[in-house]
Structure formats: structure tokens, C-alpha cells
Design goal:
alpha/beta; Arginase, Chain A; 6-stranded parallel beta sheet; 10 helices; 37% helix; 11% strand
Amino acid sequence: MPFDCGTHPHRVGARDGPTGIRLASRLVRTYMPDTADFDPVTRLGLVDLGDVALTPGRIDDAFVRIEGAMDRLLADGAIPVTMGGDGSVSLPQMRALSKRHPGLVSLHIDSHTDAYPYTQDDRYNAGTQYTHAAEEKRIDVSRSLQVGLRGPTSEAGVFAFARKLGYPLIPFDALMQRGIPDVAAEIRRVMAGRPVHLCFDMDVFDPSCAPGVATPVWGGLLAREGLQLLRALAGLDIVAIDVNTVSPPHDVNGLTAGLAAQVVYEALVLVCRRLQLDQPEA
């Protein structure tokens, strides 16, 4: 999904995220001896289909193209694994997924709600995708979760607005106070039996380990904490993996892209576990 809206006040560059993640992924090995001693790429038959053909900044046209690409993948029974792109690319993905998977829920791991109010002259940006998903009834909002929220915002009342839309929120401080195992147990309980869109925004990580994002927020997850959270999600019926907001022009030595590639790997392992393709190799 080589797209960003081109309207961010300070950082434009997530359109280059897929290229950055692909390059960094060369350093990700496929076996994890202590937790996943098998090759998820081979077992899932992973295929890189390249980028969606679109023009960054042309929002309406790009959304149609993204949704169409997702429609074709889903019609073939595939589990899409997407690399953004800014967070706005999640909306056309949820539009496509909702047609294929009734009762869809979204696990949104992010430092921002992306459920902000909008105006008619700025309906679509990287902060309104979950507003539209709720208004369009693309997901079951009551059983979706937003996890890891923190930091300053550009306007007041954003948590209240997200809750008014129906989203349950687990802010970052609550995540840390309760602990990752407890929050992961709640996620598994709330989303049990539902098709899950796993949306992982890389700015949930602290900028010390993921500096190359559109909107960095200090005081976030360390790399090991974020990966621990992912590994604790085993058992969810993940029907789509959506990793976004890597901005290579703002990255440092490929740190963010490399961590995003590892996030993709960990999500693939989760899918293998759900499909019972996770037996260690001899």
C-alpha cells in the first residue's frame, strides 16, 4: 500500500514504507528456535504480489484501488498481509474485509485512536479511518479494541469522541499498569470466535526503536514489549494483517522498517498457529 494522503503537517513519506520494509526483511530469519521453530513463509505459501497501482495523495482513487485489490485477494481465499502506507489505508481494507467476513472486528494497536472528527472538506486522512469504519458499520465496534493510546493530540476530546462511536479503549498507561498478559487475555476473550483485522501502527513503539513514523510519540512500547504483546494473541482468528505508518525518509538506519518486518513475521506465526501449521520441523 504505497500511499499517504500527502496532507500531514510535518511528515510525508509513508508512501515509501513497503519498499523500506521489503529491504529490511532480508535480515529477518524464518526460524525462531525458542518459540516458533518452523518456516511460516513456506507453510503459508506467502507470495509478494507487489504494490497496489495507485498515485499517493489521490485519496478517493487510491481507496478504490486498494479496496479492489483486497476484493480480488479475498475472493481467492487469501489472508492479506499489507504494508503501509499511512494509517488511512486501513479504511479501504476494512471495507473489503467486511464484505467477506461478517461480524468483522478490528484490533487496532496504535498510539492514536484514528477516530477523530472530520470536516466535509477534509473527510479522509490518517486520523479518521476508524471514524468512517464505525459510521459505515464496517466492523463491530463494540467488540473491536484500541490498544496502546498515548501522548498529546492536536485537539481536545479525542478519547471521548472515540468512545462515543462505541470503541472500547485501552490507553497505554492502563496497558502498562495491568500488564501485557492481562490485556492480551481480555483481547482474546472479547474477540473470541470473530474474524479479526489486526491493524498494527508502528508509532505504538517508542521513537527510540521506531523513529521512522509519521507521528512519533515518546513513551511507547519497547520492541520486546510490542513483540510480547503480539505473541500473546495466539488463538485469534486473524483474517488480515495490516502493518502501517513506516516512513523511510524519517527512519534511522532502517530501524523502523526492520522492526515492522519482524512484526509481519510474528503475525504470520500467529496465523500458522490458528491454522495449526506450527509444528516444529524435524
